[in-house]
Amino acid sequence: MQRIKCVISYDGKAFSGYQVQPNGRTVQEAFEQALSKMHKGSSIRVTASGRTDAGVHAQGQVLHFDTNLTIPDENWQRALNALLPEDIFVRYAEEVAADFHARYDVVEKEYRYVILASAQPILFERHYSYHVSKPIDVEAIQAACKLVEGKHDFTSFCATKTGVKGDKTRTIYQAMCWKEADKLIFSFRGSGFLYNMVRILVGTLLDVGYKKNLPSDIVKIIDAKDRGAAGKTAPPQGLFLWNVVYRDRQ
Fold first, then answer.
1. How far apart are CA 174 and CA 162, in angstroms?
2. What is the pLDDT of residue 74?
3. Which of 54, 169, 179, 248 has the maximal Cβ count within 10 Å?
4. Assign residue 205 a region: left if phi > 0, alpha if psi is -120 to 50, beta otherwise?
5. 8 Å CB contact between 126 and 114
């Protein structure tokens, strides 16, 4: 038996999220179906670094599974991509230590969120960005991002309908926002994220960009520990799980 780690990308627009559910097409189900074909019908369960919601994309989702097949690393990628649907792609695969865990060994995740800041929407961008036509003060957002960084109780940025109980303290190592042509890109690197946390952060930071709030108001919103103090939840299609970093096992 060997443990295989895969880094995968997926287009989330046609999925009901990552995790298997009774009704709806999911990334996990599609991946496990491909593995089942490789294992002559046997059920193979995969474990991911975390879940993504319906419509959310991934550039660098990480998962692991155990197998009794002996296949070179480079052939795993080729074999899986031949069986997976076109909206999932295995970027690479490798054998790892038997105690590697795609979820519990994570030390940092990066999420990115894409805003299309233009007078008119671009039809072909609608599944991969959130269109905003209002003027945005990017410098004000950048100043507010600095106040998001650090270790905080992020209760104000957690969806009220969540299974997360107890401590909602997380550490944001870096929060950034920058322009790329007509795109506004947000990046959040942290130890972990609460349910809808990134999308609520984006909605709240946009309020700063619209000059509804001052950058310094972020501190008050964090201190309130109240979801009602923060802004709206940005829609899912602009969100990407960008990268997952693991502890050094050497």
1. 25
2. 87
3. 54
4. alpha
5. no
